Structure formats: structure tokens, C-alpha cells
Amino acid sequence: MQASATFTARTASRLRQIGRAVVDGVLPPRCLSCGDIVDEPDALCGLCWGGITFFAPPWCVLCGLPFPHPIGEDALCGNCASERPAWDQARAVLRYDKRSRSLVLGLKHGDHTHVARAFGLWMHRAGNEVLTGADLLVPVPLHWTRLFRRRYNQAALLAHAIRAAGGPDVAADWLVRRRRTPVQGHLGPAARERNVCGAFAMRPRCSVVGKRVVIVDDVMTTGATVEECARVLRRAGAASVGVLTLARALRTGT
Ligand SMILES: [Zn+2]
Ligand SMILES: [Zn+2]
User: Fold this and answer.
1) What's this model's pTM, rounded to 2 decimal places?
2) Which of 7, 32, 90, 211 has a beta carbon 3.0–4.6 Å from 243's, enabling a disulfide?
């Protein structure tokens, strides 16, 4: 009786595997953004690809802000020149605007693992300078109440996908959000800074002393969140702090 139950369970599991393989083989790959059929998995269709701005040099050596023309290898943008950020270097894959919004927000709905895997590959490639020599990826944490409601942290998903693409280890819960901050969507730069001030802390017994860490998030808007995280990691003794995000919003006109 027991042998036959085991056999049935095994057969069912094998059939499920075969079923999944058949479905994977039969269903055509879909565009990560609009869902149209594309030639390869984890890709964008020509139309979506053409609408998205992928960052490329020449850019600010610190924050990766693209320049319209080359102005020297170590050139800084106006923001970085006037006030040095708490992190050492930041890179993003693409510009966050109305054309990329649905792609970026796809991480929060639908097939998370599928889009995260593609984003991890892109971030690993675009973040080469930041990731070289890095010891740890530190995702920007969600407050536990938000994590409970959403069930997963998209920054942690991205960090694990970067790790899977060949990046360093993930320190998933080392940085914690100790108070719940209001959603920042409608807030201006100064209000965002106030909103996240003192919001993060290191988890006890997690040491980044002497470590080269890279903060991972989905979108960098004003930079207030990663700035605050970088301050905490620096105070905790990190040797260097990089920032790697999937998308970055630029002020209009830049
Ligand atoms: Zn598309
Ligand atoms: Zn800059």
C-alpha cells in the first residue's frame, strides 16, 4: 500500500515535470513589457526596446548621469560636484519615465521570478563598475508591515537575480527599516529626505566592517533612500558603498 502510494506520488510529480517542460516548449516567449510574442525569452519586443532609454557613457563618473557629449573620464555632474553623495558610485540600467514605468512596475505584479531574472542580468552587466570587487549586495529593505502585505521585497528579488547572474552574495536582512515611512510618490526632494531620515539601521550582529557593499533597489528617484542607507552602512564601517538600481528618474530637462 505504502509502495503504491509512493509510486503514485512519484508518477504524479514526473507527469507534472513533463507537463511543465511541454508547456515551456510550446508557449512562445513574451515581451517583458507589453507581452507581445518575441524571438527569445527574457527579452523586449522592438517597439518596447526602442521606447526605453538605456544609460550609456559618457556619464558622470560618480552617479552615472549621462552627458550629451564626452567631457573627460573623471567628469562629475553638477549635483555630484556641488555635494558629494554618501555612496561612492551609482549605476542604473535604464531611465524611469512613462515609457519604462510598466516594465519596471512589472516586478511588483505578474511573473516576478521571470522578470527579475532578466533584470538581474541587465543590472549585472550595467553595474560592472560598481560590482567589481564587491563583497555583498544589500537590498533596500521594506518595513515588515509592508513586506507582510506585499509578500516579497522587490529589491531583494533583484539582488538575488544579480547574484544568480554572477554577482556577490546577498545580505538580505542586514539592513532593516525600523519605522514605517509614508509612500514617497508625491513627495518632493526635501520631503523625501525628511521622510527617510533615521528610517534605517543595521540588524544587530550583522557586520559590514571593512566590506565593499552595493545597495540594490528597483528605482532611484531623488536618491534620498539610498543616501540614507549609504550613511548607515558607512557609519557601520563599510569600506565602500556602491548603488545599483534597475531604473533612475531624471529631472525633466536632463
Ligand atoms: Zn513589447
Ligand atoms: Zn553625478
Assistant:
1) 0.84
2) 90
Residues 6+ apart with CB under 8 A from 207: 236, 237
How many A from CA of 62 to the centre of ligand 2? Answer: 5
Q: Look at residue 94 and give its three-state secondary structure.
A: strand
Q: How far is the CA of 181 from the centre of ligand 1 (A)?
A: 34
Which residues have CB less than 5 Å away from ligand 2 (the ion)?
Answer: 60, 62-63, 65, 77, 80
- Quote the ligand 2 centre to 232 CA distance (angstroms): 21
Segment 228-244 mean pLDDT: 97
- Identify the band that residue 106 occupies on the pLDDT scale cut at 50, 70 and 90: confident
Band the pLDDT of 145: cuts 50, 70, 90. confident
**Cα(237)–Cα(239) distance, rounded to whole angstroms?**
6
3 state SS of 1: coil
Q: Name the closest ligand to CA 48.
A: 1
Residue 213 is inside which H or E element, if any?
Answer: strand 212-220
